[in-house]
Amino acid sequence: MTSFDRSIKIAPSILSADFANFGQEIRAIEAQGADWVHVDVMDGHFVPNLTFGPPLVKAIRPHIKTVMDVHLMISPVDPYIDAFAEAGADVISAHLEAGPHVHRTLQAIRGAGCKAGLAINPGSGLDGVEYLLDMIDLVCVMTVNPGFGGQKFIHSQIDKVKTLRAKIGDRPIHIEIDGGITPETAPLMAAAGADVLVAGSAVFKGGSVENPEPYGANIRAIRAAAEAAR
Ligand code: DX5
Ligand code: ZN
């Protein structure tokens, strides 16, 4: 990963890609301007949906030239951290709600050589984050209940991001927003202090590997709206 900065970064979620064509889809979104690639891992237990595990993450790694941002919506997390690190994740985010020992989980992520991310569900407050700030590289604020793409943005999370931004101060911690990001909602979060914007349906809509230009137009629309709000 390159050095830390707070510029707006668009991270398309491959949850909205063609699952039979991950390699081509990833090359297409990067060619069209994606800054990071967001990989949603779901276990059918922590969230009511199943996606994929370490072998798939490892298989797509060679196609990613930017940053592989792995969002683990799984519980327990700890037994799988080394496998996702070995699969080539740059960032691994685990949920605050995934177990009682998130401090240990974050230690394990950094210990495995990855950047450590902490994901927070819409219903969770920031109390649990306070004592973790010096051991994380990213906070992922969920603006939908995790499990599915294409859900509606939850506006109550704007205040959470403002409060979080103040708590972070000068620490080199990214604020990532995940769920319901569009050119309409991105500026609300950019103004509140977010820098990494995950978008699935709003990036992939209208395009395909044969016709990737809409991916570029979608990414540029989200980025322009966010940057204008800064
Ligand atoms: C939701 C996932 C998101 C999701 C975002 O559980 O963590 O990354 O793919 O999808 P959209 O942008 O369609 O809300
Ligand atoms: Zn995600």
UniProtKB/TrEMBL annotation:
Q: Sorted alphabetically, which InterPro entries does this protein's record hold?
A: Aldolase_TIM, Ribul_P_3_epim, Ribul_P_3_epim-like, RibuloseP-bd_barrel
Q: Which GO terms describe its cellular component?
A: cytoplasm
Q: The organism sits in which domain of life?
A: Bacteria
Query: For this chain's UniProt record, which GO biological process terms are given?
Result: pentose catabolic process; pentose-phosphate shunt
* Cofactor, how bound (note): Binds 1 divalent metal cation per subunit.
Keyword terms: Carbohydrate metabolism, Cobalt, Isomerase, Manganese, Metal-binding, Zinc
Q: In which pathway does it act?
A: Carbohydrate degradation
The GO terms describing molecular function are: D-ribulose-phosphate 3-epimerase activity; metal ion binding
**Described purpose of this protein according to its UniProt entry:** Catalyzes the reversible epimerization of D-ribulose 5-phosphate to D-xylulose 5-phosphate.
Detail which positions bind a divalent metal cation.
H38, D40, H71, D178
Q: Which family does it belong to?
A: Belongs to the ribulose-phosphate 3-epimerase family.
Enzyme Commission (EC) number: 5.1.3.1
Quote the gene name from the UniProt entry. rpe
Please report the name of this protein according to its UniProt entry.
Ribulose-phosphate 3-epimerase
The record's annotation in Pfam families points to: Ribul_P_3_epim
Q: Which residues form the active site?
A: D40 (proton acceptor), D178 (proton donor)
| Cofactor(s) named in the record | Zn(2+); Fe(2+); Mn(2+); a divalent metal cation
As its record notes, the protein acts as a catalyst of: D-ribulose 5-phosphate = D-xylulose 5-phosphate
Q: Which residues bind substrate?
A: S13, H71, G147, F148, G149, G150, D178, G179, G180, G200, S201
